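Checklist before submission:
- one chain only
- standard amino acids only
- sequence pasted in full

Submission:
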Amino acid sequence: MVVGWALLISLLMIKNHQLFYMENQRFAVYRIAYDKLQGPMFGDLDWLILLASSFLVGIFLGSAKKMVYTYFAVVALSFIIGTIYVYLYNWFVLDLGQMMAYVPFGWEYALYIAFLSILRFMFPLGMFACLVGLVTGSFIAVWARIG
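Returned file contents:
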């Protein structure tokens, strides 16, 4: 369940990252890897999917301890998967590898850019939406068992 939820969040980030580069030709043509002011973000349907999946996971988790560990594991795993994808996309598709080949430790800069791109997705709204859905789902599950 943890891996599935993390994969769903990662796939939402990957989809939006890919759509952003397909829709905004300026970023694709000039091969801009990161911009502070404009970048990929979740859409309305993606927020709904994120909240619904968090809600369902919250219903199926039993204890608060399990909920906390699952939340941090999912956030970490989705960060890792999303960062790896964006790093590989920037390195091979945007040809950042050719540009960074001449810079000492250029791969670290590319990894840092990928981390910042994923951080834009998840912090603070993405993490908050996951937490709200998870807590709400667990409260509903506890209330349904009591009543």
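Reviewer check: The longest helix spans residues 106-146.
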